[in-house]
What we know:
Blueprint: E1 2-4, E2 9-11, H1 18-24, H2 29-42, E3 47-53, H3 61-64, E4 68-75, H4 78-88, E5 93-96, E6 109-114, H5 124-134, E7 135-146, H6 151-158, E8 171-174, E9 179-182, H7 184-194, E10 197-204, H8 210-231, E11 240-246
Helix pairs in contact: 2-8, 5-7
S-adenosylmethionine binds next to strand 2.
Amino acid sequence: MTKDQDHSIVADYNGYxxxxxxxxDADRKYEDLADRMAIRKxxxxxxxxxxxxxxxxxxxxxxxxxxxxTCTLFDYSKxxxxxxxxxxxxxLKTKAGDIYSLPFKDASFDGLMMIRAxxxxxxxxxxxxxxxxxxxxxxxxxxxxxxxxxxxxxxRYWRKKTDLNPFIKGQSYLKDLNMYNYHPKYIEELFKxxxxxxxxxxxxxxxxxxxxxxxxxxxxLARLEKPAQTLLAPVRFAPSIYYKLEKPAKS
Length: 251
Ligand SMILES: C[S@@+](CC[C@H](N)C(=O)[O-])C[C@H]1O[C@@H](n2cnc3c(N)ncnc32)[C@H](O)[C@@H]1O
């Protein structure tokens, strides 16, 4: 599913049935609900032009279609975009391309989101600068980051089950999965260095664990998740950390 590029890696979802294989067959209802809860807390109610970056088949499109005049779904995979087009038709524009060189003019959008994509990106510095570039001054970005400093990872490291040190302020490459995770402090420094202002942080998918799912069920976990997203945000131990960022308006 992955091919090397000059400076980066594209996770190529063309022809991969992400919806069925990842979401439906694997029963990730709780994770889906957790994403939606966070988005509802963070995304502005009313926007002119909005883009869902690396939005796949538009899993979360119903969370933003009612909030913006024009909505665009951007992704590398043309088959994912075709699935979205089939479902949403003219309500959702689609655009294909590579995140490292977004096919949009500077200051095109007053809102964007990027969910469950950072684990595919080696060069987050470049990704963040592209997101910043396409936002209008005063625009809002909601970005989910794959966290390297999760509680299970910390425990595994302390028990010497892994060499990957979750406390190092940088990125870690998970060789078996061909994925990247990021230390929250590192990513927050990148956001700030780019010029973003961090408005709010949420801790998301706090109870992503097969045993907990078996005991509490998807809905039970979702009930626990709701308060946990805010309460646990300061410790940043969850697998997904959500950021609401603002590109400051020019003074
Ligand atoms: C795990 S899926 C997430 C999709 C959607 N955001 C969601 O939460 O359901 C990751 C998406 O990133 C896209 N992607 C991976 N590398 C990309 C790149 N370099 N440029 C644009 N999209 C990319 C894939 O095609 C895929 O649709």
